[in-house]
């Protein structure tokens, strides 16, 4: 039997090899671990020593939240302290779209806890289209205590939804001051870009609203205030633990106006059912006493973000309530242009006050017959009578003698064809026609030529003439103030909310006409005559003061050659506009105004009675009666 022979040398060699490989692997692993520890050490050293300040700052930022504190917006009051715009605090229910997967489903579920109307949904949808996904948007405003409690009990069901305390703007006078005070609205991207360009974006952190139109826009920098800052320590869950420091916000400054709220209401009521505008000015300072454009709109609709349905109704209304007629509406001045034509005639030596013309009731020029309002004419007419009875023929002849460029150059002195510089944005410059204006206005050479016949219509305030009620008010205020023009301004002073210091908006002279006092007296005497014995006499019959004025009627559509205007046969929107300019008391004017009543017919019938009621209230405190549509009366309506 054979024996198994074991070679001990082979086993020993294999064990040694295995031990060697094991130790080698162990050394490599140890070296790798050591290397990694070195790497970690270097990294820790870099983070803890070299980058200590940086990460310490980041850690503090994670621990401390910087919360902007929105300032309270300054209030706006009239000259007697009547509130026109103020603030109140209320709770809102807000959704952050970026934290919600299905907004519609969320709103549906929210509606089971808190009432959400279709109007709320439409408004939220409009805000969503205009905003960024990380901004919180209001779905319901002015929550009641019961609604707040109900939501608090169900809050866990609605991630991305929270209740916030907000300051809201309110306009207690509603549409009465809508065009002059304006309104605020949510800041859009264009406005945000402008704030950044102006270096004001830091002061608007946390602010959602900005002045959009009217005084809210013009005096935005004064009304907004200074945003405060609060440093709050938060825990890992993002909950506030304690307040570390607080820099209080500074409320916006208060704005006090020259406007009289009661006078404004008188004007609004006096218009009755008619559309139109009225601007009343203190001729000695340029302070605006009343500024009405009717119809207006409710500015409170815009504070929360107007819903599409209301916006559509306002934007598509045939009455155009969103148009500021007093500031941006341009209309032919009609016969209210004649006093300025008369003064131009005296200044350029084209007429003497006593010089007369025979008025047959028409003026033939270039094969065209320009008719006077009175069939058969007014007989012999001097300058005084031309204004008192509003003789068109007198001014047809005068316009032809003056020429368009003389007319244009003189009217520019009164501010026609340029912005008055009032403290409201959106003012129209109007149209003051001239040969140069026509060359720039039209492209074709045959359109650019000025024809002598066009000057004739300009002379009675028709043709290309188009001015705002504000420009007409400023122009008659210049005559009332013996030729001195002041820039019209609505704000009287700005009151610092902290120091109560008043920064007065000083009257700003814009120039002097430079006409002779005796020439100005001729025109002013005639304007007094208008209200004593002329076209404005019926409206001002029995007035215990002496006033001056001029009626006007402006065509909306041109009549064909020989065609007679019959109001009852013309569609309401195509009827003539009624105008009236006036000031009182004539010997020491305290108020000058311009009235425009759209499609109301003759100025003597529709516009002059409004002016009478406004002046009666301002000088005597007498309450007005609303204007109502009436029948045509040519006896007192000639303009």
Description:
It is a single chain. Helix 10 packs antiparallel against helix 23 (603-620). The chain starts with 7 loop residues before the first helix and ends with a helix. The longest helix is centred in the N-terminal third of the chain and has 43 residues, at 8-50. The chain is elongated and about 145 Å long. The strands form seven sheets. Strands 2, 3, 4, 5, 10, 18 and 19 form a seven-stranded mixed sheet that branches. By secondary structure, the chain is α+β, with helices and mostly antiparallel strands. Helices cover 37% and strands 20% of the residues.
Mean pLDDT: 88
Number of strands: 23
Helical content (DSSP H or I, runs of 4+): 25-40%
- What is Rg? 38 Å
Q: Work out the helix count.
A: 24
Low-pLDDT ranges: 630-637
Overall spatial form: elongated
- Major sheet size, sense and barrel closure: 7 strands, mixed
- Give the strand content: 15-25%
- Helix and strand content put the structural class at alpha+beta
Distance between the termini: 153 Å
